[in-house]
């Protein structure tokens, strides 16, 4: 091969390598960039949106759940159970009476502290999801540490309920990165966020069942994934009315196992 041609090929290859490296750096940086899940709330029946939050493509690339089929008047109830505050039993009573499925995302603390409630969730047909063992900011963890957090919950739940597999995970505090979602997906989980929520987790700022009812009902929209915290007295007291009046509006309650259409907007 002529020396000139070799030189040209070498220079071309060098430029290609430099370009490839420069292109991969931002991707790697974005994969570990932490995001706090946020969204534009639904009002007056309008659909919620994550289009302005900067992470929509990350959720979509990892097939995470934010919003279900917006052509169907279906609702998905999900609860975060970091610890027990005396209201999960009442929540389960209402769900059983109304024949409504739900998903409960549990931490290691809840699994160890409330085995009877955990068993009841499984026996009554609800999804038990993974909310990590110690509720950390998972963007600060390595993939191996994330696996450990999730495996400990899965194994502990299996020990209590006999349920061997877990299909859904919710990153603690809604903090995530591309690496977190990708790691969870590789471990066989579907990441679950939400399209309807309110500030309900502060146990010293409960404002009554009417407040909880209004907060949830004002955000209802087709395909809504509703996040509630089971530590809230307000939620427990409002849940029956929320279910009844949502049904009066033509909504039905579905399991996350039935959520087959994921919308990103």
Automatic annotation (TrEMBL):
Task: Tell me which residues make up the NodB homology domain.
Answer: 73-254
Is Mitochondrion among this UniProt entry's keywords?
no
Q: Write the record's keywords in alphabetical order, separated by commas.
A: Signal
Secretion signal span:
1-19
- Protein known as: Delta-lactam-biosynthetic de-N-acetylase
Q: Could you tell me the gene encoding this protein?
A: pdaA
């Amino acid at each position: 091969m002529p020396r000139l041609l070799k030189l040209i090929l070498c220079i071309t290859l060098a430029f290609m390598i430099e370009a490839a490296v420069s292109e991969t750096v931002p991707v790697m940086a974005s994969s570990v960039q932490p995001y706090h899940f946020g969204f534009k709330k639904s009002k007056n029946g309008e659909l919620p949106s994550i289009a302005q939050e900067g992470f929509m493509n990350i959720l979509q690339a990892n097939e995470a759940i934010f919003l279900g089929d917006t052509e169907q008047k279906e609702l998905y109830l999900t609860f975060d159970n970091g610890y027990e505050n005396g209201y999960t039993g009442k929540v389960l009573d209402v769900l059983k009476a109304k024949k409504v499925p739900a998903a409960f995302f549990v931490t290691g603390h809840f699994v160890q502290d409330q085995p009877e409630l955990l068993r009841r969730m499984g026996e009554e047909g609800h999804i038990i999801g993974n909310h990590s063992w110690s509720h950390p900011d998972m963007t600060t963890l390595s993939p191996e540490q994330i696996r450990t957090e999730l495996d400990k919950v899965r194994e502990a739940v299996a020990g209590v309920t006999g349920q061997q597999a877990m299909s859904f995970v919710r990153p603690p505090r809604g903090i995530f990165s591309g690496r977190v979602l990708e790691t969870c997906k590789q471990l066989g989980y579907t990441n679950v966020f939400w399209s309807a929520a309110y500030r309900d987790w502060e146990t010293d700022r409960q404002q009554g069942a009417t407040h909880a009812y209004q907060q949830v009902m004002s955000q209802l929209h087709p395909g809504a994934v509703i996040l509630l915290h089971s530590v809230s007295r307000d939620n427990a007291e409002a849940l029956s009315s929320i279910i009844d009046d949502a049904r009066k509006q033509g909504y039905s309650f579905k399991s996350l196992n039935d959520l087959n259409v994921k919308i990103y907007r």
